[in-house]
Amino acid sequence: MSGLLDGAASEIARAVNARESSAAELVDAALARVGERDAAIGAYLTVADDLARDRAKRVDARIAAGESLPLAGVPLAVKDNMCLEGTRTTCASKILENWIAPYTGTALRRLLDAGAIPIGKTNLDEFAMGSSCENSALGVTRNPWDLGRVPGGSSGGSVAAVASGTAPIALGSDTGGSIREPAAFCGVVGFKPTYGRVSRYGLIAFASSLDQIGPIGRSVGDCALVYAAMAGVDPCDATTVDRQVEPVAARPREDLKGTRVGIVREFALGALDDGVRSVYETAYRDLEKLGAELVEVELPTADYGVATYYLIAPAECSSNLARFDGMRYGLRVEGPDVGATYELTRAAGFGDEVKRRILIGTYALSSGYYDAYYVRAQKARTLIAGDFARAFERCDVIACPAASSPAFEFNAKSDPVSMYLMDYYTIPMSLAGLPSLSVPCGYLTPNGSANPLPLGLELTAPLFADAALLGVAGAYERATKHSARHAPAAAP
Amino acid sequence: MTSATVSPAAALAVNGVPYEAVIGIECHVELKTETKMFCGCRNAFGSEPNVNVCPVCLGMPGALPVPNRLAIEAIVKAGLAFGAAIPAFSKFDRKNYFYPDMPKNYQISQFDMPFTLGGAVSFWLDDGSPRTVRLTRIHLEEDTGKSLHASAGGRLGGSTHSLVDFNRAGVPLMECVSEPEIRSAAEAVGYLEALKRTFVALGVSDVKMEEGSLRCDANVSVRPAGSQTLGTKTEIKNMNSFRSVFHAIDHEIARQIEVLASGGRITQETRGWDEAKGTTIVQRSKEEAHDYRYFPDPDLVPIEFAPSHVARLHAGLMSLPQARLGLLLDRDQLSVKQAQQIIDTPALFEYYEAALAVGAPPQGAVNFLLGELARLANETSTPTASSKFSPQALVEVVQLTAGNTINSKTAKDVIGRVWSEGGSPAEIVAREGLAQVSDPAAVDAFVREVMEAQAKSIADFKAGKDNVMKFLVGQVMKASRGKADPVLAEERLRALIG
Fold it and tell me: In this structure, are B426 and B444 located in the same domain?
């Protein structure tokens, strides 16, 4: 049975729908794997054994009643910033360490309705703020390719769960690269859909205008399957877009003939280490070999992406995280009066990076600084989106590195700004709300390392061209087969 | 209403220096919607604590607001009723501050792009003089929960803990901001009454100060009359009725003039009205002012209004109290008090209009509507419009009395019968011969009868006891079984007694 877990999600669903297997068997197999493998990896903060078995029974009953479900019995790992009724939902923060979600978010509910089985909640940088998963207050997650390295972040637990084979699919959230960068670090596919395509209802907000839930899987096809099951307008999220979700092509593209791939002049590969550069040069050549036409495009304001992002995202987070005050739920450290209780609770409940961003954001929104920082950042955001719009007049997708290096070692980025720069290639797309994904594009073995480390190619498409983007990535993946390689921790 | 009271601040001159008050009013009005502003919870007053709540209005992690379309339409209607402009684009902003009764520690409100801009509120003071106060804006926001402090007096000081009821959290709230154009406590009350009348007529709010669905603060300053610069203002809070609005503002104006006249300075501060002591008390000074860090709420998209949508809402507006009041004052020449009493009950206004349409003279109709008919309505707990007394009946009664066909006593009897049984007053009078006896010869017959029977009283009268006349007229009325014209009866009595 565990063999099925290494196959495509669509194959798992087919087998369960055909009653060749059952959700119950798959959940048992997945939970057994978690037991075997996750002690070394630390992908999960909570393993939802009872809930998973209960849901598996329900899915099997629906199949027995004649239903056919697109994700029948597919085990799913869920980033622990998404609400799942009755389970602990922590955001990897002490302030929510023991909070039980009273409801299930929309995206997750749609996947459950489609037959997916949530087997556990995965680790993340506290409140999704970070690029290595090291900012988790509740646990360490290791990269399945090299246990001495970080899995990336903030969706580190979800990518590690997929890369270590404990869950075929996972949900992550991406604010400035939190799906794409860790997917690149762990050799899996991570997709951030167009902003407004997937409901945020039930996703604990970091930066509302940027946060987007997306799928993580071993293949583009698995991600497309999950995306199709959860995308679309939601009456509970006013920022979802009421517009037909383009169907993802049933059959993947064989080649990239007629597709213009934009290579960004400002993202010249010369700035990268030799080994990394050569992987990306090969990747671009592979796109060309598939029939794509490579065209140079310009994103002159992309360089301002990180600075812009680190005003807008902290500004929103300073307000979004105000509700964690010890009054109604979560951690409460009692003080002599209500003001002191707020201060003690938040001092004890939030980690350093979260506090840093709340401070930056509070400052950026303050009277006297608002125009100079927040308003200016919003104007820069508009310019960046405009650059992309102009670039997409000349190309259909943009290709670039997902990150400037493979996964780094623990504690390698102690300076916050060097950590912020890990998202240099992913932030501009987030600011523009574009659909963007990372697909494995090669491996390199750094000096002194025993294991090869994956790298990810970031592909980005115009707004609402999610399906077309998945089509391009699928053709690349089928031709190069980089996604087929397993991390050592997932060796069968 | 209290506005008739002579106020101490009415005399605004001290030591020969005349002062003028400058007042702006901010009021919060809870909208009467089925559901809350950003979630599907019931918007109801008086439920058990914390029953009308959900993840959204409790600010649970991950929950998102979705705007209530009907609340937005209600505020647009309110703005249109006062001639406000409805901008094509509007948006919601977050107002950030920490308070335990505010679940998210920010309030969704509107900062620089409210749903309505400008407009004006017209009203009349009790002496009939017209006033107009311009509106700055009306914006939409969510209400907070309610804190209950566990101390003897229900106050925060001395309480061991506090409880919060979130039923009110997320209820749609309109904030109406006036320009600082109000000049007296009476004007402030007139302005608020005009707002209330309009919101009730539109059906957008109950506007009950005692239930908290209308809450208001006043910014008050004074300056030498004719000065163009504004004096330092204070903000007056904790006014729980129109009466307390009047007294608080009146008191604050007098207090400020006294401070200035004695060479002192006004401190910019928030003062609370203490109803029991009849004075305003410092609550907090300017130094504690908040930086609310307003920014556009990223969970909500900007809202666009198509001109056709606004036009549709405009077309749906009924004739509003402001327009009705003007009509009764200008067309019908009623007094402000009479006109307000008529329009304060929409059904009564409609009844009045119906009576005029079938020929009732305005003043005559109003005399009965606010007199005998109001008394019967009160006595039987039945509005006049729901009684059997039709507008046509009112016209007949007005005509019967105006033409002296029946006297007021007969009128009262007939009205009472028609009120409960229906029918035509004119027919009843004709059928039962209730018409007043106005023929001097016929009245003389009754007078002689009385003169014979009341020899002692006649003697008294002749001896100079003029007040006996009242008794004698009463005896004539009795003899005529109420039908004699009392004026004529007295005239004939005096003539025949000699």
Answer: no
Flag whether B331 is in a domain: no
- Asked, as a colleague might, if the bond just before A154 is cis with ω within 30 of 0, I would say yes
Expressed as residue numbers, the domain containing B402 is 345-431
Two structure tokens written together for B447: 């007078």
B 19-78 residues with CB < 8 A to A: 55, 58-67
Task: For residue B60, give the nearest of A102, A209, A238 by CB distance.
Answer: A102
* Exposed / middle / buried, residue B432 (Cβ in 10 Å: 0-12, 13-18, 19+): exposed
Question: Measured between beta carbons, which residues in chain B are less than 8 angstroms from residue A235?
Answer: 66
Considering CB atoms only, which of B103, B298, B301 is closest to A323? B103
Widest pairwise Cα distance in chain A = 70
* CA–CA gap between residue A95 and residue A101 (Å, rounded): 14
- Whether B59 and A323 lie within 8 Å, measured CB to CB: yes
Residues 6+ apart with CB under 8 A from B467: none
Contact A46, A18 (CB under 8 A): no
Q: What does each of the 492 residues of chain A score in pLDDT, given as a tens digit?
A: 568 999 999 999 999 999 999 999 999 999 999 999 999 999 999 999 999 999 999 999 999 999 999 999 999 999 999 999 999 999 999 999 999 999 999 999 999 999 999 999 999 999 999 999 999 999 999 999 999 999 999 999 999 999 999 999 999 999 999 999 999 999 999 999 999 999 999 999 999 999 999 999 999 999 999 999 999 999 999 999 999 998 887 777 899 999 999 999 999 999 899 999 999 999 999 999 999 999 999 999 999 999 999 999 999 999 999 999 999 999 999 999 999 999 999 999 999 999 999 999 999 999 999 999 999 999 999 999 999 999 999 999 999 999 999 999 999 998 888 899 889 999 999 999 999 999 999 999 988 778 899 999 999 999 999 999 999 999 999 999 999 999 988 876
- Whether residues B169 and B57 share a domain: the answer is yes
What domain count does chain B have?
3
Both B23 and B123 in a single domain?
A: yes
Instruction: Single out the residue in B431, B456, B489 at which a domain terminates.
Output: B431
**Do B287 and B240 fall within a single domain?**
yes
CATH number at residue B479: 1.10.10.410
**Do both B421 and B456 map to the same domain?**
no
Report ipTM (2 d.p.). 0.96
